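Action item from last meeting closed. Structure (181 res):
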């Protein structure tokens, strides 16, 4: 196992191990990739449990029902496989295809400040949701005197309508959004 460090900053989460399959160490995979089977194209996998990562090679994979099952090198029993359930599947982000101008991977937007048109900080991007109609930014709003503790704000990811500018260098997203929505 290796500890998380600056090298792991190049890693991106592409899925999660969501259960065991059979008695020979196979695992069920929940893929975050746009095309479910695309996750199998990326190698090697790094599984993240807590603060540690471990690299695994994919031995075999197959479609099973609506999902995917895999066998990873070094995991040959149901008991060992069970230890990895809920681990995040990470890959080197350099493996991802380059996107056209103006398109971004969610991982590129996570952690960015979101400001309204007048420069007021609405929050920090912490997650995303897919709704079918459009993606939604999930922002963590810093606690203040008005709101005790932190809260979440949801903003639709609609380029030009709501999202006016994404500036990766400045680490910010400018939106046309009322803070009171």
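Sequence:
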């Amino acid at each position: 196992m290796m500890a998380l460090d600056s090298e792991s900053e190049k890693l991106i989460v592409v899925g999660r191990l969501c259960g065991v399959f059979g008695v020979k160490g196979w695992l069920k995979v929940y893929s975050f990739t746009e095309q479910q089977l695309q996750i199998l194209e990326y190698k090697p996998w790094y599984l993240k449990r807590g603060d540690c990562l471990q690299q695994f090679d994919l031995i075999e994979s197959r479609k099973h029902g609506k999902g995917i099952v895999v066998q990873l090198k070094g995991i040959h029993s149901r008991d060992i496989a069970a230890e990895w359930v809920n681990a995040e599947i990470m890959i080197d982000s350099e493996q991802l295809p380059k996107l056209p101008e103006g398109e971004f991977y969610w991982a590129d937007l996570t952690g960015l400040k979101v400001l309204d048109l007048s420069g007021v900080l609405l929050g920090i991007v912490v997650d995303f949701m897919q709704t079918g109609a459009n993606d939604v930014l999930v922002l963590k709003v810093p606690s203040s005197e008005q709101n005790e503790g932190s809260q979440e704000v949801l903003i639709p990811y609609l380029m030009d309508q709501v999202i006016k500018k994404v500036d990766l260098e400045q680490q910010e997203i400018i939106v046309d959004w009322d803070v009171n929505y």
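Note appended to the action item: Residues 2-94 form a domain with the Elongation Factor Tu (Ef-tu); domain 3 fold (CATH 2.40.30.60).
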